Amino acid sequence: MTTQTETARQFFFIExxxxxxxELAKKLGRRPVCNVTTFGCQMNARDSEKLAGILEQVGYxxxxxxxxDLVIYNTCTVRDNANQRVYGxxxxxxxxxxxxxxxxxxxxxxxxxxxxxxxxxKKSYRFVDLIFGTHNIFKFAELLCTMFESEDMVIDIWxxxxxxxxxxxxxRKYSFKSGINIMFGCNNFCSYCIVPYVRGRERSRSPRDIxxxxxxxxxxxxxxxxxxxxxxxxxxxxxxxxxxxxxxxxEVEKIEGIERIRFMTSHPKDLSExxxxxxxxxxxICRHLHLPLQSGSTRILDAMNRHYTKEQYLAIAERIxxxxxxxxxxxxxxxxxxxxxxxxxxxTIDVVKRVQYDNAFTFIYSKxxxxxxxxxxxxxxxxxxxxxxxxxLKVVQDTAKERTRLLEGQIQTALVEEVNEQNDAFxxxxxxxxxxxxxxxxxxxxxxxxxxxxxxxxxxYYAGEMLQEA
Length: 470
Ligand code: SAH
Ligand code: SF4
Ligand code: F3S
What we know:
Its cofactor is [4Fe-4S] cluster. Pfam families: Radical_SAM, TRAM, UPF0004. It comes from Kineothrix alysoides. Its EC number is 2.8.4.3. The chain contains 13 helices and 19 strands. By secondary structure, the chain is an alpha/beta fold. The chain has four domains: 3-156, 3-Layer(aba) Sandwich (Rossmann fold); 174-286, Transcription Regulator spoIIAA, CATH 3.30.750.210; 312-406, Transcription Regulator spoIIAA (2-Layer Sandwich); 410-466, CATH 2.40.50.140. The strands form five sheets. It has a six-stranded parallel sheet with strand order 2-1-3-4-5-6, sandwiched between helices. A five-stranded mixed β-barrel has the order 15-16-17-19-18. Strand 4, helix 4 and strand 5 form a beta-alpha-beta unit. The N and C termini lie far apart (48 Å). 40% of the residues are buried. It binds S-adenosyl-L-homocysteine, iron/sulfur cluster and FE3-S4 cluster. S-adenosyl-L-homocysteine is lined by residues 78-79, 192-193, 195, 230-231, 265, 267, 292, 294, 332, 334, 363, 365-366, 368.
């Protein structure tokens, strides 16, 4: 089936779902409300916007509270604590549903691609109404209809897909910025990681579809975009007419109205010299590169199946620092991978000190069923993990603070994102290099790019003052 006919099919189900929601509205005497809660990464958040787009079209009002007529949890399974959060909150949803029997509960996202999870929900969470996975999210309207027409739990999980269904409705969380999927899935199989198993094989969207989507976002007032993929540096390799990520960026740069371009995530093994040159020459690509290290020990990197050594990583980081000195570099690090010793953690700390990360997300290794690392017999004890983790975290935080402080006194442009949560006389903006700055202002500035003076460094963020609209 072509993706156009699939899109048309889904629009048919949107009309049908509307009738179900209308009927519910009559019964309730008000417009039904729904909630979509995201547990995962930016790609997961983008999927939630697709769900929200359909929910809005079929007649629901989207609300922040989970005290709703329909609640959807878009789950993540990258680490076990993400799973535990979902189970915990399901208990709370159940107590709500007992008071409101018409309430519907749906689960989707990465966790649902795991057989063990489905078994557990079937057994212990019978009150869930609809379960679907990552590969068939495009048929959400159809699944909603099935849910309304069925008494039992509806489960529809696909093992994999090669389809990319375009042009379905999307409801963005922010009016001025948006994520855009440029590729789906992952082929890297890092030995600790479950993503390739729950997101399927890597497939790139056509440059034409990507550009068209960004053009329509720009026409709709979006000024900042983030190109999303598990490994954007391998974008386009499997297209009929292959195209590199660097060349895609050159095309995106030309789109009028887009002022800022971000992307996530870059795998160090595929970062090309051409990409460094595009970033260097670009007026729009933000001065921020997220370059996950995972470990600074070549031995551990090898066991992780990362395909680079400590020295190779350092060489890339050095190239970037030399070519684009104002580029901030951030990273992800895992502590406690099977077989990791405190000496290995020292290697990681050494990389942190040398690269001088502007920020780093540090994670404790979480054993994911079905991954190669889960069956390695040299799992690390909790005490050793904790010792290494605490030591690393301290260095990461000190380095990040030092880097942030370097901007003190500078004048930079910031995109205003929101009114400050603690004090509504202030707004919060983001610099090109991803640093946050708070300064006096009001809601009328949201979505605008303004010039700010970075007056006072408060650890990881700044207090500033607006000079003018840029
Ligand atoms: N595709 C991205 C990362 C996606 S997952 C990349 O390759 O960089 C985001 C982060 O979660 C990873 O960078 C890694 O640091 C962390 N992570 C993934 N699996 C993990 C696991 N089993 N335990 C702990 N952290 C993990
Ligand atoms: Fe996971 Fe590695 Fe793929 Fe990133 S590149 S999603 S860490 S397997
Ligand atoms: Fe989590 Fe899936 Fe993203 S496992 S990190 S939501 S791709």
